[in-house]
Amino acid sequence: AVPGVVHAAKRLTMPFWSTWNMGLSVPGVDSVERIGSFELNAVSPDYFNTMSTRIVLGRGITEADVNGAPRAMVVNPGRARMPLRA
Question: Do residues 41 and 13 make contact, with C-beta atoms less than 8 angstroms apart?
């Protein structure tokens, strides 16, 4: 309802300012530290459109990604190409 606003979305923390940490596990990997460090943020479904972020492969967060549904994660292409650390 605000003139000129095309998209709006929710995010748990402020972009480029703060992050939220929690435990993370990946099936088949005994330690997530082997993958590297992560910044985690919970976002609403229209977040990537709002931030003009293009999804290169797969999908973004949708209305179906609710508590109890299979978990979804979006990673950048650089992170997706990184090998596991030994």
Answer: yes
- Residue 36's region, left for phi above 0, alpha for psi from -120 to 50, else beta, is left
The CA–CA distances, whole Å, from 46 to 30, 54, 59, 75, 86 equal 33, 12, 12, 16, 37
- Among 32, 38, 42, smallest CA distance to 65 is for 42
Give the three-state DSSP class for 49.
helix
pLDDT tens per residue across all 86 residues of the chain: 789 988 888 887 776 666 666 666 667 766 666 666 666 777 888 888 888 888 888 888 889 988 899 888 888 777 777 766 54
Helix H or strand E encompassing 81: helix 77-81
